[in-house]
Amino acid sequence: MPYECIFVIPARNEEKSIVETVNRVSAAMEQAFDSFKVVVVDASSTDSTPQILERLARENSRLDVISGTRPHQKGFDIHNAFMKYDSSIYGFLDSDTPEMSQYILPAANLIKGGYDIVIGSRYKGGAKLDRPKSRVVVSGLYNKTINAIFGDGILDHQCGFKLFSKNAWAAISPLAREKKWPWDTEVLLIARGMGMKIYEMPISWRDSRGRTPIENISRVLSDASIFIPATLRFIYRFKILHRLSKA
Ligand SMILES: Nc1nc2c(ncn2[C@@H]2O[C@H](COP(=O)(O)OP(=O)(O)O)[C@@H](O)[C@H]2O)c(=O)[nH]1
Ligand SMILES: [Mg+2]
């Protein structure tokens, strides 16, 4: 029997947030579904996250813990976790934003009502944002660039909260290749190319890390080194190859 929903939480060194996130996601899932699994992918954490997860899994029969791959492969880890289960809905939520679990029930209802994909959006009207300026500027530039190139109309590609219907995931998954952060953008571009119905849900978002300005700049630079080559790959795949195949 397929599950009604599989909900994945990617986690790397999340000893501060993981208990609250697992508990709040589990409570939200109880409200929304009869049969479900909460699946934490522990990506080589070096803090006490693995021990905490072992304890949580002993207490919670609906929690599965699986091991991630190398660091930075969040997309690949979520992808692999989805592939392990047969489910009507697949979703994921970043571990450091437990308050986002409040959106699981409304997002699940939208999928049940016929949407292919529901994504959290920090930039849609009605959203509330508490984020360092450097990251807001870079993220805004990134989303606008993707829109200018691909015309996909999505305002927030990279928010760590997304749900997919079974059919949407079955169609997208064989085509998704990115392993790192840009996997989110890739799955949305594939979905748009297939004419899927995507709902951007305005959310209230707070960057929880409390990084120093130097750490924020360093994150922006490391993101640039990952997102710029990925965007060039997307141009090749979704624009150039697409045009050649039509010629
Ligand atoms: N699978 C996996 N997850 C990761 C990795 N690094 C961070 N995460 C998780 O991915 C989510 C987003 O990471 P975060 O550092 O908060 O990114 P930000 O929100 O863009 O600043 C969090 O739940 C992290 O625990 C990783 O290397 N692999
Ligand atoms: Mg985060």
From TrEMBL:
Pfam families the UniProt entry points to: Glycos_transf_2
SUPFAM superfamilies in UniProt: Nucleotide-diphospho-sugar transferases
InterPro entries: Glyco_trans_2-like, Nucleotide-diphossugar_trans
A single BP term in Gene Ontology: protein N-linked glycosylation
Highest taxon in the source lineage: Archaea
This protein's UniProt keywords: Transferase
Domain Glycosyltransferase 2-like: 7-168
Keyword Transferase found: yes
Gene Ontology MF terms in the entry: transferase activity
Name of the protein this chain belongs to: Glycosyl transferase family 2
